[in-house]
Design goal:
alpha/beta, 7-stranded parallel sheet, 6-stranded parallel sheet, 23 helices, 33% helix, binds adenosine-5'-diphosphate, binds zinc ion
């Protein structure tokens, strides 16, 4: 008999030792349920089961229960027939959703690894918003593309000024010319108005819904795989047959046909009765991506994404639980999908930051995919053109099998990349080099389009010498120092090292030190001077307000009426512009000098991505990268497209300084409006942590101000734990904090926010 109010930490015993029918074998009917609630209190709660609900209350089921004066929803952990706690209240109702035993186990792991309660973790796995309710359905029917060949091209030209209609036509073509109307309006997000406009032009026709098609009838040989693709598919197929945990890294340059490999492996799994999860980064959920999968899997597939409502997500959830849907495609939360007979998880663009959840429990979907693979004996494929250092290292250590697609399909060449030294080439008073201006001129002259990318990483103000390129760095961390206006100091936000700001460059004694780069507006003005009358489209935080703002701009550019697209990070991803011949990177510095140990890795990944925008069709594209640090190893390997060599060098640095993947980090932010109190609490906490968990290979760094010292009127201090902590130690970290705030009687004046395996440091 288990104790009534169990600490969450011991839930493992119950979860793993019990089968769902365990209770029913006993003669006495259970009358109490032990429930995990979505609150940061490390215990479980006991509720009575009213007889009329007895049928539905099982371990894993979501229930509505009273908590104080409100109602909250929790997950039933186990049933029991006796309890000695007083004042037990009854369960109010039983929800529509539940967690399978396998997902219970995964949730438990999320809670212990990321340092939250089971109930909090469960909110990510199966949000309470997933519930049965009437879903507003668009009118049914099947849309069919009514134009092809030359007629399609004519339609494309005619629709030039209406980018949404153009996007719809392309999506239709991409998915084979026929989809349900519902797919267009609900998954792809086109309004009925847009669809009607295209119907009116007789480019799309609507037919009544046809019988659900079966996998066997779909034309399977859209493309003939090349040898490398064949080899990869075969290895994946063998692995899924083995029914053991088999992790892979599919390393393939951009445009090498990775998606084609995913599609074949997934098809094989599904034909053999298995199920499949495909994770894509947030931004990739464009109609074209969905359309490609839809073409192959039709109704066997579900798409889930954050713009869907709870009831819509519930519909997809139910189709998965009932085995009707065999493949799910979506961003990070799709990793928790209840697909039946799961065999394969694909993580596309595995290095992408959007796999990290920003809110509690701040999980990383790639990590979850691997843990789920381990728990359920799955094949897990991580795919990328620029794999993360973590995955790269695991592959190097032979923990993952490496699959490789070294060439672009059909021999499209990689772009030519030139690294330009701004110390020598800068045109005085501008942000341009002579080389870039010359190339722009040539490109404009031949009627081509160009993308200019201004690398800007928000608030970090590092110090750089404009004469020699020297950058102020921490002597302990090899990370740029951040300029803090308060006190005029340069600080390492990682270890807390601080020094006074400098009047001149210590390398060359020039006094031309600058703190931040220029903005896009300034560059737009430069462009107007150099190329009067040329149509420049600017894309940055100011011009892209609204959820769809950046899409609108990208569509404008795709329509061809602008010659230059100028923008920040947003221009690097998600669209395919056949007309782009030249990509210019104005300042490769900002990312590289960003105070983060991942900055070199990110720079390489980002520049590879943006380079991929140049010359995707036909002729070879050109890329010009402007930098004050042309000798940095990032650039020498970028130029030759040698990611392997880059990573080997990068990993040496990481190893030397004991950064991930050679250590783990937990970063914690203490936040308060009361600066003095914040300092006292955080100091005391860091001290306690040093005493309790500090040991060889576990260092407690800080407190130190993070990059953003003050946010929304609150002060922030950061403490970083570097080293491998056990689940118990992680819990201890939070417990020590609670003890200190209790002892100092601070009430709720100081907030704690922690992040296990942080991907960013704000
Ligand atoms: P990646 O995901 O690696 O960037 P994709 O799978 O998107 O590459 O492939 C790029 C393009 O090449 C797609 O349009 C795809 O249909 C096409 N493609 C993929 N494999 C082949 C092949 N073996 N032969 C011809 N075209 C292919
Ligand atoms: Zn200098
Ligand atoms: Zn430091």
């Amino acid at each position: 008999v288990s104790p009534p109010n169990l600490p969450a930490g011991s839930s493992k015993i119950i979860l793993f030792g019990m089968r769902p029918d365990h209770i029913n074998q006993k003669s006495k009917k259970p009358t109490y349920a032990i429930v995990a609630l979505p609150i940061p209190v490390d215990r479980l709660f006991t509720y009575a089961i009213p007889p009329e609900l007895a049928e539905g209350v099982r371990p894993g089921v979501r229930v509505e229960v009273p908590l104080g004066r409100r109602t909250t929803s929790g997950i039933v952990i186990e049933l029991t027939h006796q309890s000695d706690v007083g004042g037990i209240r009854p369960i109010k109702s039983v929800g529509d959703t539940h967690l399978s035993p396998a997902l219970m186990k995964l949730t438990d792991w999320v809670a212990s690894y990321y340092g939250c309660t089971f109930g909090e973790a469960a909110q990510s796995v199966i949000p309470p918003s997933f519930r049965q309710a009437k879903v507003k359905r668009s009118a049914g029917g099947f849309a069919r593309l009514a134009v092809s060949g030359a007629a399609f091209t004519r339609a494309e030209e005619e629709v030039g000024r209406a980018p949404k209609q153009l996007r719809l036509l392309h999506a239709m073509k991409e998915c084979g010319g026929a989809v349900e109307v519902r797919t267009i309006t609900e998954e792809w997000g086109f309004s009925r108005t847009i669809l009607n406009q295209v119907i009116k032009k007789t480019w799309i026709s609507i037919e009544p819904v046809v019988e659900r098609s079966h996998l066997g009838e779909i034309d399977r040989d859209v493309v003939t795989l090349n040898t490398d693709q064949e080899l990869s598919v075969q290895q994946l197929i063998d692995a899924t047959g083995s029914r053991t945990f088999s992790p892979f890294l599919l390393y393939g340059v951009t445009g090498s046909g990775k998606t084609e490999v995913y599609l074949r492996a997934a098809r094989h799994v599904i034909v053999n009765g298995g199920g499949c999860i495909v994770l894509v980064p947030e931004i990739s959920l464009l109609p074209q991506a969905i359309a490609r999968y839809r073409k192959h899997f039709q109704n066997e597939m579900a798409v889930v994404h954050s713009r869907m409502t709870g009831p819509e997500r519930y519909d997809a959830w139910k189709r998965m639980v009932e085995g009707e849907c065999r493949l799910v495609l979506g961003p990070r939360s799709a990793v928790f999908s209840p697909i039946q007979n799961l065999r394969l998880i694909i993580v596309d663009e595995e290095q992408d930051d959007s796999y990290k959840q920003g809110e509690k429990p701040r999980y990383h979907a790639r990590h979850i995919a691997l843990m789920r693979g381990k728990f359920e004996d799955l094949t897990v494929v991580l795919g990328s053109a620029t794999p993360s250092a973590e995955s790269y290292e695991h592959t190097h250590k032979k923990r993952y099998t490496r699959l490789e697609l070294p060439d672009r399909v059909e021999g499209v060449p990689m772009p030519r990349i030139d690294i330009v030294d701004m110390k020598v080439e800068r045109v005085e008073g501008t942000s341009f080099s002579k080389t870039l201006l010359d190339r722009l001129k040539t490109c404009l002259g031949s009627g081509g389009q160009s993308i200019l990318f201004l690398n800007k990483r928000g608030h970090a103000r590092y110090v750089q010498c404009s004469a020699c390129g020297w950058v102020a760095q921490c002597k302990h961390c090899d990370i740029s120092l951040t300029f803090h206006r308060i006190g005029g100091t340069l600080r390492c936000h990682f270890c807390g090292f601080s020094q006074n700001a400098l009047p001149a460059c210590p390398e060359c004694s020039a006094s031309r030190l600058f703190f931040t780069g220029v903005g896009t507006q300034r560059i737009e003005l430069d462009l107007q001077t150099f190329f009067p009358g040329v149509a420049v489209l600017r894309m940055d935080a100011d011009t892209t307000s609204g959820k769809e703002g950046h899409l609108r701009i990208l569509e404008k550019f795709a329509s061809g009426s602008y010659s230059i697209l100028l923008g920040t990070q947003m221009v690097t991803k998600g669209h395919h512009f056949p007309g782009v011949q030249l990509v210019g990177v104005l300042n490769a510095e900002d990312e590289l000098n960003f105070p983060d140990f991942r900055s070199a890795e990110r720079t390489f990944q980002q520049l590879t991505q943006v380079s991929g925008r140049a010359g995707r069709v036909g002729r070879r594209g050109e890329v010009v990268v402007q930098t004050y640090m042309p000798d940095h190893y990032v650039f020498s390997y970028l130029k030759t497209n040698d990611y392997d060599k880059f990573m080997n060098e990068e990993l040496k640095v990481r190893k030397l300084l004991k950064y991930p993947p050679y250590s783990r980090l937990v970063s914690a932010l203490c936040i308060s409006k009361d600066k003095e109190l914040l300092e006292r609490v955080t100091e005391a906490w860091a001290l306690t942590l040093r005493r309790t968990i500090g040991r060889e290979n576990v260092a407690v760094l800080g407190p130190t101000p993070p990059i953003i010292e003050r946010l929304k009127g609150s002060y922030r201090l950061q403490v970083m734990v570097k080293g491998h902590l056990t689940a118990r130690e992680k819990r201890g970290v939070v417990e020590r904090f609670n003890e200190i705030t209790l002892r100092m009687k601070t009430g709720r004046a100081v907030d704690l926010r922690w992040d296990v395996d942080p991907q960013s440091f704000y």
